[in-house]
Structures are given as structure tokens and as C-alpha cells.
Amino acid sequence: MKKTELTTCAARLLATGLLCAAASLPAQAASWLLASADPAVVPGEAFQVVVIAPPDSEALPPRLAARIAPPGGGEGIAIELAAAEAEPVDPRQRLYFGRWPQELVGTAMLSLSEAPSARLLLDASAVATAAPAAAGGAPLAAVDGRVDSGVDRMAPVSPAISGTVPAAPNALGFHEPMYFVYGGSHPRSARFQFSFRYRIFDDIGVVAERFPLARGLYFGYTQTSVWDLGSDSKPFRDTSFRPSLFYQFRLSDPGSGGWATLAAGYEHESNGKDGPDTRSIDTLFLQTELRHYLDERGTYVGLIPKAWAYLGKRDNPDITRYRGYAQLGLRVGRDDALMATALLRRGTDGNSGTEIDLSYPLRRSIFSGVGAFVHFQYFRGYGETLRDYNVSVDPQYRIGLSFVR
User: Fold this and answer.
1) What dotted CATH number matches 172-404?
2) Three-state DSSP class for residue 214
3) Residue 145: its pLDDT value, please?
4) DSSP conformation class of 43
5) CATH of domain 3-135
6) Boundaries of CATH 2.60.40.1930 in the chain?
7) Cβ atoms of 177 and 193 closer than 8 Å
8) pLDDT tens sequence across 24-38
9) In angstroms, rounded to a whole number, what is the distance separating the alpha carbons of residues 246 and 262?
10) SS3 for 5?
11) Which residue out of 270, 352, 365, 392 is catalytically annotated?
12) Where in the chain are all domains bearing CATH 2.40.230.10?
């Protein structure tokens, strides 16, 4: 049996034992307890946990503060747990949803901030070995009747909508890579980008409760700048602003050794200028992200094709000759090691642009997707900036740091 399977099996046995222990606790026991039917969680996705409070405590609140301690110790990562239902049958036994941090990979300990003695060991393997419990099926502790200890059976929880991204308490997150690199030529320049996305509807809000599909609606924003550091006044050569509104949902089960997501929506891109330098486009886009894991260490191959239709391009009517109607993104590597990515575009006249990025973490850490990485970037062809979409540049080599990749 493989090491990952052994770890998961052991964690399952531990979780099962905790659930059994919860059922056999005497009514007067004055301790908190965390339990889960499935100890395998997927980084960046939702997970379920049962919280059982002492009989003499107050009713459990809709939200609980919790902390995840990494394997090597340290302060850990603070998260928030959101109740799966508004009114539980037993106010001292409640099912909560949480979102496991994307950057935390490996075995870690979950505990409650207000009751540190309540702990639960969970396994966030880079390659998911089981689908999140929220993906469907029977709710946790859904046993017919009452248990002998007098603890009420947990009330049924509505399963998540099949195919949607699991809802999570964390609304603000990263969207595209964030980096700062320097180099280029004629003259020297810096290129940097920051990006975020915001999930519009909260899990337990009125809209999400009545229309569960609304949980997959996001607002995204990405800003990319080329800064001319070789000139005396050091002006910004161009800046691209890209707000978007899109819906994202999952197409496949992470337990299959990979996953796929689909996003569709509207995106505006402009450089915020007027006169002859103004550039702007409006598009409807469809993007798929496919990821397949190659080994237990988390090495994977990813494909990110994106296609779009133009709603408006008055400021640059010939942009399709240089940007076309689609692009292809490629990713190969590990989240905690070397990562290589490529972005390929080709216009209707055969004009193309190619960007290749290589990054490596500056220190070994469980914080894999977010942190500090040495970053090398190569670009050649058309479309380095929106203003010069119809100008081809010689190979540009830059090096620097990335913070999200």
C-alpha cells in the first residue's frame, strides 16, 4: 500500500474513532470535540467538520474561528468555519464548512480558537484521494434514530449542487499570478502584475440559500504594467486594467487524480488613456482549466484554454489580426517546487505572442502557491502591452520575484 494511502487510511480510522467516541460520550462530559467522516481534504477546496460542544455550553454560533497548525509547528493559519444550516436540531452539535488554504499541503491539525483542546488531524494531500464530503451523498453522522448516548442524530444538510465549486467562508482570493520582474531591452523596463477575485455571495446569505448556484459568481480584477526604468522620467509605458464578472464551477471530481473547472463571463480590458493611445476591448469568454497529477509528490500537467468573442473593439478594430479569438495556457511542475508556465496567442493573420515563466520557491515551505519565488520571464512577439498590440518586440528576458503563481 502506498504511503499516501496509509496516511489516509490511518486518518480515516482516527476520524471514525472520534465519531464513535462522540456517540458514546456521557451527557455530563464537559469537553469539546471535532470530528469528520473524511479526513482527506483538497487544498483550496471546502471541507466538512462536526463540532460538538459540552452540554452546559451555549448554542453553537453560525460562525466559528479556527486555526490550522502546519506539520512543523508555528502559529498556523486562521480560518473561519460557517454553519451548514441555519437551525440545527441540536444547538450543541453542528456541521460546519471550511475552506482549506490553497497554500497548505500535507498533514495538519485543525483546532478551535476558543477551545484549543478540540483538535482534528486532517490530510491535505497535493493529490486528492477522496472527493470533499460536501460534494454530495449522505451528511455526516446521518444515522437512523438516536444513538444510545442520548446525543441527537445530526439534522440532514442539503448537499452541494453537483458540479459547482464548493462554497467557502473566504470571499477574497487570488486570481492570476502576481509578480515583479526587471530586464527587457530598448530600454530596460520592469513588468509587474497583481490580481484578485471576490466571491460575491456569501454561503449563508439570503441569495445563496435560495439560489445555491449563485455561490459560483465572482468579480475578478487584474492589472499589468510595463514600467520604463531606462528613461530619465521613468514613465509607465502602458498599463492594462482587466475587470471581469464570471461564473465558475467544477466539472470533475478531484478524487480521480486531477480536476477540471469551467469559467464563463464578461471581461473588459483597457489602458485608461485617451486620444491616439487609447485601447479597449470588451469580450465574453469561456475558459477551462484541466489538471492531471503525475505522481504522489504533486507533479502535474495543466492546460488552460480560453476562447472569447468581441463585444466591442472600436478603439482597435484590427486587434483580431494580432490577438485572435483564443489563447492556450500550459503549466508543468509542482506547487512546492519548480513550475514552468507558458501562454500562447495567435492572431488571424498568423501574428503570435509567446510568454514563458519559470519560478522556484526561495525556501522550502508548506506555503506552496503563495510566498516568495525567484521568477524568470521570457516574452516575444505581439501583445506585450495593450497599447502596442500591433507591434512585435524582440525577445525580452526579465528576472525578479513572484508572490502568487
Assistant:
1) 2.40.230.10
2) helix
3) 34
4) T
5) 2.60.40.1930
6) 3-135
7) yes
8) 433 333 578 888 877
9) 10
10) helix
11) 270
12) 172-404
Q: Angle 174-393-182 (CA atoms, 0-180°, nearest 5)?
A: 50
Question: Is 270 part of the annotated catalytic residue set?
Answer: yes
Distance CA(376)–CA(370), nearest Å, equals 17
Distance of CA 271 to the CA centre of its chain: 27
Please state whether 44 falls in left (phi above 0), alpha (psi between -120 and 50) or beta.
left
The confidence score (pLDDT) of residue 211 equals: 84
d(Cα 181, Cα 231) in Å, to the nearest integer? 17
Q: Residue 253's pLDDT band (boundaries 50, 70, 90)?
A: low
Query: Would you say 228 is a known binding-site residue?
Result: no
Lowest mean pLDDT among 17-21, 45-49, 384-388: 17-21
Three-class SS of 115-179: CCCCEEEEEECCCCCCCCHHHCCCCCCCCCCCCCCCCCCCCCCCCCCCCCCCCCCCCEEECCCEE
113 is in an annotated binding site: no
Q: What is the mean pLDDT of residues 197-212?
A: 80
Distance CA 181, CA 183 (A): 7
Report whether the peptide linkage leading into residue 116 is cis, meaning its omega lies within 30 degrees of zero: no
Assess whether 268 carries a catalytic annotation. yes
Choosing from 195, 252, 268, 392, the catalytic residue is: 268
Instruction: Write the DSSP string, 220-288.
Output: EEEEEEEEE-SSSS--EEEEEEEEEEEEEEE-S-GGGSEEEEEEEEEEEEE-S--GGG--EEEEEEEEE
- The closest of 182, 185, 184, 61 to 112, measured between CA atoms, is 61
| Length of the chain measured in residues | 405
